[in-house]
Amino acid sequence: MTDKQIEQLIWNELRKKKVTLNDMLGGDYIDPDPDDKSKLRSQRYRQNRFKETFSEHRMKELLCVGEYNPYNDSPALKVSLQDLFRFWWENCIAKELFVDEILQDIFEHFVDQMKPMKDESDQMDLTLDFEQVSLSVKDRKQAA
User: What is the extent of the structural domain holding 10?
Assistant: First the structure.
C-alpha cells in the first residue's frame, strides 16, 4: 500500500466508526458537546467509540481485520507491518532523532559479529542431578 492509500484507509475507518477527536483523545466516556448547557453533563456523556485506552491499541482496534479482540496482542491488520513502518518513517517522526540510535544498533550488531565464539567450558554448569537432591519431608527430618 502507498502512504496515500494507508491514510485514506485510516480516514475511512474513522468515518465508518464515527470517531471524533474526543474519542481519539478521551477516556472511557466522552462529553461530545461540553458547551451545551441545556443538558446535564451526565446526560451528554456517551461511551468512547474505542474499547481501548492507549493509542497503539486504538490503532490496532481501528485497523484489525474482522472483530477486534483486546486479548490478541498481534491481530491481523489491514496494512502490512512493512507499509505501516514506511508510513510512520515518512510521516510521523523526526528522522534526525533516530539516526544515532539506528547507528548505535548497527554498530553493536557488527561488534557482536566480530566477537570470538564463546568457549562452552567458560560457562557455569547449570545442570542439576535430581537423584542427588532429597525432596521428601521424611528425608529432611532424618538429616536433622
Answer: 3-114
pTM (whole model) above 0.70: no
Note whether residue 140 is domain-resident. Answer: no
Residues 136 and 126: their CA atoms lie apart, in Å, by 23
For residue 129, the model assigns a pLDDT of 75
Q: Name the phi and psi angles at 64, rounded to 5.
A: -70, 150
109-130 pLDDT per residue, tens: 999 999 988 776 667 777 777 7
Whether residue 62 contacts residue 13, with contact meaning beta carbons closer than 8 Å, is answered with yes
Is the separation of the CB atoms in 77 and 65 below 8 Å? yes
> Which triple of cell numbers denotes residue 33?
458537546
Specify if 23 maps to a domain: yes
Residue at 126 is within a domain = no
29 within 8 A of 42, measured Cβ to Cβ: no
Eight-class DSSP state of 30: E
